[in-house]
Amino acid sequence: MSVIRRLPETLVNRIAAGEVVERPAAALKELVENAIDAGSITIAVRLGEGGLGLIEVTDDGCGMTREDMALALERHATSKLPDEAIELVATLGFRGEALPSIASVARFTMESRVRGADGGWQVVVDHGQQVADGPAALPPGTRIRVEDLFGKIPARRKFLRSPRSEYAACLDVVRRLAMARPEVGFTLEHDGRRVLAVQGGQSLAARVAQLVARELAEDGVAIELERGPVRLTGVAGLPTFNRGVADHQYLFVNGRPVKDRLLVGAVRGAYADMLARDRHAVLALFLDLPPEEVDVNVHPAKTEVRFRDPAFVRGFIVSGLRHALEGAGQRSAQAPAGPAMANWQAEPISREPAPALGSLFTRNYAPTAVRDAGQAWRGYEASVLAPAAKAEMADAAPEPAVSHPLGVARGQVANTYIVAEAEDGLVIVDQHAAHERLVLERLKAAGAQGAMAASQALLIPEVVELDEPDCDRVAEAAPQLAAHGLALERFGPDAMLIRAVPAALAGGDVQALVRDIADDLAQNGAALLLEERLDHVLATMACHGSVRAGRPLSVAEMNALLREMERTPRSGQCNHGRPTWVKLALEDVEKLFGRR
Ligand SMILES: Nc1ncnc2c1ncn2[C@@H]1O[C@H](COP(=O)(O)OP(=O)(O)OP(=O)(O)O)[C@@H](O)[C@H]1O
Ligand SMILES: [Mg+2]
Q: What is the pTM of this model?
């Protein structure tokens, strides 16, 4: 017979610690949150060996009396829920379990002094057992030191990663909390080296720029939206300013850093047709809503939340971000980088110019694109002298470059890039990327107006064989596809009949198109809102209908493409987040030739 018994307090705390402090960064997060809740003006963090050896947080907040310190180490003792109204919690902490949990799995030293008191007090707890207490000398505030984390719990210690990756996680924690509280100053020292310092009293924008990426100020759009009591603020990177990991997305709900799946999904949805699937937007978003609309008490580390109306929140973020990015028009993150320019000028004159010149265009490119730009430039040098290119350039010569932001086409390079002259610089357009984007925007615009997109009936309807579940999904989407000019109907259990295709895609491989759409629906179907699902499908269509790289274009065609890009929202990036065009300012050209 088993006997039911109450577990001793230390064991209870240790079990709770399994959830609250699974690694140094989690303990650090709790300590810094406490320091913020204490009303501190500056918070200093010191780490040793990625937090495995030492985590120390010193604040100048309200401090604790000797009695409070004893209480703070008891489970479920908190000063933060005065009305017992957990729904209305405004502090970062509210559970009263962080300190006892941490103290049960490390050597824990807490010193504190309230303002106006003669001195402070300290308590030392070693893996759950109090081992010392007594007076302490420190300025008003609190200093907590956590050493030898999981030192007596080898099973847990085994799961820790290298000091390097634990440090990275700690830095991320400080960064996110510092972004959530721009009024507080923060410093972070790791193994004796100062790695982060931000002044208190900063504006949110300044703090974000300092902590995320300076480029975001230039290559991002400010977000400032309100719907009733719900607000979304922050800054969202242009799609061309993307990264290979999602770590550079900073999301906050009511001032609390979160890694919430719903929010992450909404961000992905908003950028869906502007980024390749393996690229990620860079942004900092602050969602503020009435506390009763969100439950923060659903995750032990409080990094996930639950919304009362998730569909509203998701829709608000998706449409808000899209709208803001649309407002950025055909901007593309692509201004030549200052440092690259400086490098170039430092080069001895006799060196081969192509690579450095390439890098001028490439601040926001993936490494492959860096090479592409360099190659494009070398291609340019070669084909400027080629007879065909010369002839085209002569044709184009009379038109002045004024008044068109993307300039007037002067030639085509490698049958892939359009070279244009704008009033203030040299523009190079990737014709396939640009055209794909334009086709997509055309398809979307047709759909948005509710008008039937121009459609071309097939003389002989085509049959596409697909799995039954694929057919189900495509058939379900058929009404929306029809609105975009793609007329399909079910043809038995595992085939679809195609009767008409969008005029923009006439002559393409219809079979491949429908198969890609089916894949798209399978991959994203249930997860995405209808509107986003359609955008995916349209992006797939657009790719099928675009001018391929490698097709020669006439000057008139090139100019038509440039003019359409100027008119089209979001034409600055292709459907995968690469820029569709880059510009080298005339003054930068002059610098390259030593004229400035
Ligand atoms: N740096 C600090 N300055 C002043 N008081 C503090 C500090 N850290 C902790 N406290 C006090 O100790 C109490 C317990 O802290 P603890 O982190 O364990 O719980 P909590 O913050 O209330 O809730 P949670 O478990 O959600 O973090 C707090 O409610 C607070 O009153
Ligand atoms: Mg706390």
A: 0.67
